[in-house]
Each structure stands twice: as C-alpha cells, then as structure tokens.
Design a protein that fits this description.
alpha+beta; 4 strands; 10 helices; 2 domains; homodimer; Glutaredoxin
Chain lengths: ~230, ~230
C-alpha cells in the first residue's frame, strides 16, 4: 500500500505549497505537524542537511526542499499538471519559482526588516525594482503560468498571502512601507485578489488572524529577550 | 534553421556547466564571450532580472540560471540524459545540485573569505559540516549520480575545479585552510581526481593557470583600490 507522509508546520508557506500540490493531484497523505522548537527525530533523520519542513516521505523515501518536492509530485502522480508540458514554458516556470524564493521574497523581507533612513530607502528601492519584474510577468496572465494553478502560483503563495501580514507586523514604520499597492503594481494586486479568493487556494492557506497572532507573539518574545 | 546562442564568460563555472551540457548532447551553438565590466545590450535585454551569464537563446527565446538551462537542454535535445529517468532519482539530483549552489559553495567561500580567529573558526567548522554531506553522498558512487556524467556532476564543477584555486588565493591564511584533504574527505578527493581527469570534463574546464592569473589580478586591483 502506498504511504505518503508530509512533515510540515501550519504557518510555513513552503509546507503549504506541498499540501496544495498533493491536494491538486488528489493524493491522500498523512500530515504530521512539526514543532520547530523541538524537531522530531524523523525530521532530523530524514532531512539531515536542512533539518527543515517540508519533508515528504513517499514509500519510505524522503524528499525535501519545496520546489524539488513539487516537481516530484508532478512527475509521480497523475492529475492536473503542475508544470507546463512545453520545455520552454517549463523552464520559465522554474525560473520564476526560483526568482520568488531567491530574489523576490528576500528583497521584500529586507524592505520590511531594514531600519534607519538610508538602509530603509535602499531596501525599499531594491524591493520595488524586483517586484516590478513580477508585475510585468503577471500582466495579461490570469494566473502566473496560464489559466490553471501551476508551479509559480503555488510558489507565489508567500507573496500573495504571507507578505501582507508580515509587512503589517515587521514593516510597521513611519511613513508606512506599503510596498504592494494598486497604483504601483496593479497586475499583482489583481492576481493576489483572484488567487486568494479561489476556493481551492483559500482552503490551503492559514487564517490571517492566526498568522497575525504568531507574528505578534514572536515580536513580543524578541522584545522580552532583548530587555 | 535552429539557432542556439550561449552568452558566457570563460571563467564562470555556471557558463561552463551549460557548455558541458550542450557538448554532452552534441548541440551546435554559437558562443559569445561577455565582458562583465561592459555587458552587452543583448545580455541586458534578454536577462533583465539577473543581468548575468549564462544566458542561452534558443530560436530567439532566452533562458537564464544555469540549473534551469541544464534541465531545458535535457528536455529539448536527445542524447545522453542529464537527469535520471526515475522521478525519485531526479528529485535527488535536483536536491544535490541546489545544495551545491545554495549551501555548499557559499559555506566553502565563507571559509576562505572570513577573517579574524573567531569568525574564521566558525566559518571553517560550518564548511566542514556542510562538505561532509557531500562526502557521504559521493561515497560508493563513481560519479555523483551513477556511472555517467549527470546534473550533479556538471553542477559540481565549481567544487572540483574552481574551489582549489579560489582557496589558494582567497583562503591564504596561517595556518593554511586546507578544507578538502584526503584524510577528511577521501571520497570527494577521489571523485575530484576522476572527474577532472575525465577527457570530456577536462576539455570543458578553464586552465588553472589562467584562472589563477584572473584571481591574482582581482586581488591586486582590490588592494590598489583600498590604498
């Protein structure tokens, strides 16, 4: 009998990507919620390199790194395709997913976390420049890679859902950061609206209130530790 | 008629990966050497996001990011497979290639560039820990992913060929760094020997002397600028 286990945390966009892909394919799986402050022996054993979620174990074989897992899921189970079939379109999907993780999110995160006028201005400028590439990419596409949910849409969950709350708590500065606005990035805003209102997507995102409570608790813990 | 253009620089391990893959597949291509101090309008036009080599243009369509390009090449042209056919083996190849670029090389680089006893010791320790994952992975494999040159071997060119020269110039400290030694990492050393002595691989690596001259010139330029 097939065994599919996913080790994740409810608040991780990377875990949620894998859940979304498994559900898209209709794969039944056992979900194990990890306590990242007290990682399970299985997580440490099966992902010794990164010691991180998500970790997928399929018939005893472990795979980590969310984008690697997404491709594995697409190649292993039938159902709606996560990557396009055309090699060039596939390469573009891989390119943009990589861009989101390696360039876009880090720049957006820096814009929220940087302090001091000069550093903040520089980080903000860089984030705007990077996000503009997404703005141009999403233009005219109903979703990033076509009419159905694909690799880039799944990977962009952290921009669409997590970023707003992250900015609310960590980018809380004067004047407010407001990185993603309708006047600057209308296409992204439209995509975020459509994406987060899609019933299937919505079911696979954590509640905003719960995420907000998590960030709030983290900020308070950091403040208490600094005192 | 098919048109394949590669924008690269002779000293970039990332460009060399693409060259190696194209040659492995027997694809004829036009190579354009980029001057990174004076980037060509084509590079800036076709890779606006990263403005970096390698950039492959196939029948007018641009692709960047070496690992993305390698998968594209594998999916587009017949010839020896770059990725294994089994989905799990494919995911492992992707995992280790990503590991090399995102974890292994940065740790090895930091070990060379960090200064000051404490910082240096920490960076050295981290690099040893990370490289040990490779040591265990390469154990028993003639090449990383089997008996033929595959994605991980191609991606590992920077560890096998570039790192030694990089350490010689940038990790020149007392006591010497000597990160990769036969007593600590016998499997890696054996793999490096075999890999860099393979005729096909050798033809696709820059000469060590030329690389050494490049690093030397860069170090001298940095010193002159700091004076």
């Amino acid at each position: 009998m097939e065994s599919v286990k996913l080790f994740g945390t409810w608040f991780s966009p990377y875990s949620r990507r894998v859940e979304m892909a498994l559900k898209l394919k209709g794969v039944e799986y056992e979900y194990i919620e990890e306590d990242l402050k007290n990682k399970s022996p299985d997580l440490l054993k099966y992902n010794p390199v990164h010691k991180k979620v998500p970790l997928l174990i399929h018939n005893g074989k472990p795979i980590s790194e969310s984008l690697v897992i997404l491709e594995y899921i697409d190649e292993t189970w039938p159902g709606p395709a996560i990557l396009p079939s055309d090699p060039y379109e596939r390469s573009m999907a891989r390119f943009w997913a990589k861009f989101l993780d390696e360039k876009c999110w880090p720049a957006m995160r820096r814009a929220c976390l940087s302090r001091g006028d000069q550093e903040q201005e520089k980080a903000n400028e860089e984030a705007n420049e990077v996000v503009m590439f997404l703005e141009n990419e999403v233009k005219g596409n109903k979703l990033f890679c076509g009419d159905t949910i694909g690799l880039v849409d799944i990977a962009a969950n952290l921009i669409a859902h997590w970023y707003g709350i992250f900015e609310e708590f960590y980018g809380n500065m004067q004047p407010p950061l407001n990185l993603i606005t309708k006047d600057k990035f209308p296409n992204i805003c439209e995509w975020v609206d459509e994406y987060t209102n899609c019933t299937f997507v919505k079911e696979n995102l954590p509640e905003k209130d719960k995420l907000a409570q998590l960030y709030m608790a983290r900020i308070q813990a950091a403040k208490a530790a600094a005192q």
